Amino acid sequence: MKPRPGGEGLPDSRPRACFLVQAGFGTAFTYLTSGVFLSGLAILMGAGDILVSYLSVIVNICGVLILVFPAFLERFTSRKKMTIVLTILSRLATLFLVTIPVLFPARMQLYVFVPTVVAAFALQAQTTVVLNQWMLGFIDEKRSGRYISLRQTLTLTVTVVLSLAGGRFMDLMEGKYIGFAILFAAAALMGIFEVILLAGTPDGEPYQSSSRGCRFRDIAGLPLKNRCFTGFVAYIFIFYLLLTISDSYTMVYMMKYLALPYQIVTGLYMIISLPQIVLLSFWGRLSDRCGHEFTLKMSIWFFAGETLFMSFASAQNWYLFIPAAFLISSAANAGFVISVFNRRYELMPADNRIVYDNFYTAAIGLGSILGPMIGGAVKGLIDARTAAAGSAAAGPAAFTSIRILYLISTAGILLLQFIYFYFRRRQKTRESQKH
Known about the structure:
By secondary structure, this protein is mainly α. It folds into two domains: 13-203, Growth Hormone, Chain: A, CATH 1.20.1250; 219-433, MFS general substrate transporter like domains (Growth Hormone, Chain: A). The protein is built from 20 helices and no strands. The protein has helices at 13-32, 35-44, 49-55, 58-65, 70-73, 79-96, 100-103, 106-136, 144-172, 177-199, 216-219, 222-225, 227-247, 250-257, 262-273, 276-290, 292-312, 318-347, 353-389, 394-434. The longest helix has 41 residues, at 394-434.
């Protein structure tokens, strides 16, 4: 077994338990300060539809920004100290958001809110990268699939509980500012517990990077020189781009065009979350037994099924096709989150890990930005052509354009899979001929 960067002689079970509990506190903090609650706070300050829509993918967008950090962070030898510092900074920046309506007049609030959100979530993205690399030093590669599945099961459980409790609480508070203040205060408590837990977790072996002292332009091209890792990143980048062409419109499709009540929409999303509590364990064992690459390929096939079923959903049959699509999505997400995590660290060299990890995170962010942009352009083109044919067709056109986006995603993902299989088979054939 290839040794992890933390070394083989490091303590084992206690650090793994610490990182497991930390995942619970970290998830609680993130959920209470992002997603629907962050959007609600923005709306309270007068944010428009465009800004609110971007808040739903703010984590991926800010992932692009951390591409500039490796030249600085590779100089530090302690992953523990770096993680704790970044955790504190990211938590403080995030908590500052809830003070904006109190500290600034209404006309200035959004001007302060937007850059603070960008800074906070860029710090969160970088914190996650560094924490993952610290954690890897204590994980047995042969059981990494099962450990990550356990970690994801905990985070998913926390998310489900908080989605039910938090939504109910904000309904009781009628969406008033005091409700957001209480949620962020609870998040602050979770952040304090998280930092205390991280402080009591053993550090890994001192990290030494060959690129310490190098300029940004000297190390930015390192991942591109690794053809295997770059190919993997390109594969995941294209997948995210193809998926988000349509998937980014799922919420607006259900709420606006299908006119489904909020309670039904939240209930439907539980179909994605709840089955994963069981499915994560299955995918984790499969990933350890058959390999992370195999599990990754299998999970991506399921996403094509999800988008295909969504393309059939209409006002007359949504109660059949949307639950079916979301159930397939649950299986897809459970397998993907485990395998993509392990596969990228399986391909990543031990040296310059922050450089490689930030490169991967930035690629995911770029794919998540370009996908909705392409989807919006295609949807706008279809809507414009249909509107030119007559106003009477405007209603059906809204359904048609979004359903076409789902078909584009389905066809794109299937084509990506066949191309990936073809090149991987050619690569394996060449390798076998060499031996």
